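# step 3/5: fold
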Amino acid sequence: MRTWRKRAGQQVTPSPNIWNWPELYEKENRAQDVTGAVWRALRERCDWSGKDVVDVGCGDGFHLPLFASTAGTVIGVEPHPPLAERARRRMAGTPGVDVRVAPAQQLPLPDSSVDLVHARTAYFFGPGCEPGLAEAERVLRPGGVIAIVDLDTARAPYGEWMRADAPQIDPAGIEAFFQRHGFESTSVDTLWRFDDRETLEAVLGIEFSAKVAARAARETPGRTIPVAYRLRTRTKPAGLVL
């Protein structure tokens, strides 16, 4: 559950999982969405072929190659300089790709300059995210889309483990927030599949407290975890004045 936020008057909150264990988080990324369901749903909502894309909270750039394979240009934005440097190394030599260091509320992009703002389990968790949403709206062209891919905190088993570690998570409140802000949301069911049991348990150990990670391991037979996501999209109308 990679989370970094910058709310009004606050600094970026560290994301211990990828900041402290980037190599293990790489294995987690490889295990996620092995069915491709999230990518299919995202492309159905906002096909980025030939378009200008910004990936907010891009981390070490894991998702940048897939965008770059068909997009016109891709910009990864990441607040943690060591991760941004890893992303630059990953994408070195790929035309049309740039990686920049910045928080979500201060995107280093001109007004109306991109067609898709993508953020995946990186920033948006309901109330408090208004500055990031406003900044995404600023850089989008009319007709552009902001797409937020979040873990579904209401759905078992992963959502239950998240709430066990963070009881303040309010799935109904999060849904109401995005409805108020004009997002269309849908559930996407997929699987995480790991190469071996050791890696699965190690990933649970960087995502949850020791107690919840142990519970999650007990409740997970084999090497596969069913995980539900929420895909939230909003299209910028033509002529919108901020």
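# step 4/5: annotate
The longest strand covers residues 140-151.
# step 5/5: archive (pending)
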